[in-house]
């Protein structure tokens, strides 16, 4: 007989293949990083969407002097949170495809990992500006827009970044529409 916990895990993994909207009245931030180990550079990307999947904000940028993929993910999350806080967002559901990042920023313990300082900054920002927010893991297939924006950010000039406010550029709207049409509603 199969272990019921294992079965539940398989069912959850099978169902969660595409981006899913947040509950009514909430907004969701998807954030991701791209990392080039050979150059020690990376890119970050994010998209902020409402319960209907409409993008409210998006952003991307390049990261310099990145030591590892976890540091890139942490810097991407911090960049996204700073960008949306400037726009007045105070409550958000945050999704990342980095289980290490999610674990580090949701843990009450102090991380000793590379990037611990950035994790601490993220935790402080969450406490100060996003008190009722939730941080959770989502597989990359649920994080496509942020992932593609991060890949674009890698190709930009050092420390170049941009945050787009609605109306978003055509290529960003196309990524969002593709994500919505491929997602089960």
From TrEMBL:
GO terms for molecular function: nucleic acid binding; RNA-DNA hybrid ribonuclease activity. Gene3D superfamilies: Ribonuclease H-like superfamily/Ribonuclease H (3.30.420.10). It holds the Pfam family RVT_3. Residues 30-151 form the RNase H type-1 domain. It comes from Oryza sativa subsp. japonica (Rice). It comes from the Eukaryota. This is RNase H type-1 domain-containing protein.
């Amino acid at each position: 007989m199969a272990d019921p916990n294992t079965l539940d895990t398989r069912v959850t993994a099978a169902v969660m293949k595409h981006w899913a909207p947040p509950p009514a009245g909430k907004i969701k931030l998807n954030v991701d990083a791209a990392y080039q180990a050979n150059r020690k550079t990376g890119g970050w990307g994010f998209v902020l969407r409402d319960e209907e999947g409409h993008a409210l904000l998006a952003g991307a940028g390049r990261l310099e002097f990145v030591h590892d993929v976890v540091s890139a993910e942490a810097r991407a999350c911090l960049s996204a949170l700073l960008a949306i806080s400037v726009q007045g967002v105070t409550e958000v559901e945050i999704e990342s495809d980095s289980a290490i990042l999610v674990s580090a920023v949701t843990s009450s313990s102090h991380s000793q990992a590379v990037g611990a300082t950035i994790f601490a900054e993220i935790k402080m920002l969450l406490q100060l500006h996003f008190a009722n927010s939730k941080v959770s893991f989502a597989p990359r297939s649920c994080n496509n827009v942020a992932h593609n924006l991060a890949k674009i950010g890698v190709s930009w000039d050092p420390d170049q970044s941009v945050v787009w406010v609605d109306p978003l550029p055509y290529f960003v709207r196309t990524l969002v529409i593709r994500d919505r049409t491929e997602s089960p509603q």
